[in-house]
Design goal:
single chain, alpha+beta, SH3 type barrels, Cathepsin B, Chain A, eight-stranded antiparallel sheet, about 20% helix, Peptidase_C39-like, Peptidase C39-like domain-containing protein
Length: about 280
């Protein structure tokens, strides 16, 4: 079992707020050197860990019990034989640059607009074990994106999440787009071997990539970025260079994924594949 050891006096908290903004029923003062058994752990926003304690603790009000708590990562040390392991899904990478350009309702789908389509193509081709690649060869199309973009165009623009949902459904993938994903939700999907389409803050329009892994030792998320290699949380890119398994630090993810105009964690949840439920939650 995991164990959390406290390195300095700190609070375990029910919500991700400063301790002074919480009621006594929502926080536990824990002292330096104390240790607690933990059954679940996941990285979360603002350098916090979301922990499920093996046994509840009594809150500062002397009555309330807290079992799922947030701990400030620099104040604690997580140990044990069941530490979170590296997740790195073998998702073939695709670049949006050089994609076929099509026209729908007078709108040209230039390749620089196709991050959503390319990212969802990577998702579908991985989940369907190369089905889009096979179809592209059968239809004498240049690449899997050419197959998938024609499905999307039946329902809307390449930037339209609802059109992407309907196109994926045509392929037998049931999913929905959420604006409130937590890190725990993302990790549950990755551990189920399902990548997560993610909407990141970028200039004024945003950008879509696909999260394909998590490295808890180096504290980074692994991202396939169809546009190239992004320089941290900046809007600067090495366009068309790299992009596969790009490492996004926790601080970068905090800036461009968890904090987006009051909403956090824009991403796609896959609920079934070819009629087989994935076990991931609905309604997030």
């Amino acid at each position: 079992m995991l164990k959390i050891t406290v390195k300095t006096d700190t609070f375990f908290k029910k919500r991700l707020l400063g301790s002074s903004d919480l009621a006594d029923s929502e926080k536990v003062l824990v002292s330096k050197g104390s240790s607690f058994a933990v059954t679940e752990s996941a990285p979360d926003r603002n350098q916090h860990l979301l922990l499920k304690l093996a046994s509840p603790l009594t809150a500062k009000d002397g009555t309330s019990k807290l079992q799922s708590v947030y701990a400030y990562d620099p104040h604690v040390k997580l140990e044990g034989d069941e530490l979170p392991q590296l997740v790195k899904l073998n998702v073939p990478y695709a670049s949006q640059l050089g994609n076929e350009q099509i026209v729908r309702d007078g709108q040209i789908w230039y390749d620089w607009r196709q991050c959503n389509t390319t990212s969802n193509t990577m998702l579908a081709n991985y989940l369907l074990k190369g089905e889009l690649t096979t179809k592209a060869k059968e239809q004498r199309l240049a690449e899997p994106e050419s197959v998938y973009m024609r499905l999307v165009a039946k329902y809307g623009d390449t930037t339209d999440h609802d059109a992407q949902t309907k196109a994926l459904k045509d392929l037998g993938i049931e999913s929905y787009f959420s604006y409130t994903l937590s890190s725990k939700d993302v990790l549950l999907s990755l551990k189920a071997e399902i990548p997560v389409i993610a909407g990141f803050a970028y200039k004024s329009s945003g950008h879509i990539c696909i999260i394909v892994g998590h490295d808890p030792v180096n504290k980074v998320w692994l991202v396939h970025d169809p546009y190239g290699t992004r320089h941290g949380a900046s809007n600067n890119y090495d366009i068309g260079i790299g992009g596969a398994y790009d490492t996004y630090t926790y601080d970068t993810m905090q800036s461009i994924f968890w904090d987006q105009g009051g909403e956090a964690g824009w991403g796609r949840v896959v609920t079934s594949i070819k009629g087989k439920p994935t076990g991931l939650l609905t309604g997030l």
